């Protein structure tokens, strides 16, 4: 786990930080959820990528906000982690 991952994981225990983290702009919410999932399972980008059937480079670009994420990718992530995809229009 990288130092940044450790820091975020630790900071998410702080309710004020968690509230602000969760309030990120909607376009970053999916990226944030993917990063939180990766941190929760203590996975490197490479391990996460292997689990969902992509490359580490793609995960890096996603986490840096440089890739548009499609529903098909989210469905692969959900399946890999026993989750479901839920889309909300607010």
From TrEMBL:
InterPro entries per UniProt: Cro/C1-type_HTH, Lambda_DNA-bd_dom_sf
Pfam families hit by this protein: HTH_3
Coiled-coil blocks: none
Domain HTH cro/C1-type: start-end pairs: 34-90
Protein name (Swiss-Prot/TrEMBL): Helix-turn-helix transcriptional regulator
Organism in which the protein naturally occurs: Sulfurimonas diazotrophicus
